[in-house]
Design a protein that fits this description.
By secondary structure, the chain is an all-alpha fold. The protein contains 3 helices and no strands. It has one domain (2-41).
Length: 42
Amino acid sequence: MLDVALQYKEAFGHFEELDRHYHFRPTKDEWKNATIIHNSLK
């Protein structure tokens, strides 16, 4: 699941641009943590 989320990281930013009600974009720290967890699970 993290693998797919990381692949579509840029899409989360586009959601925010397209829908002003979208407020669930992960922060830079959350992406960093997701990457660390993903790499440790490989």
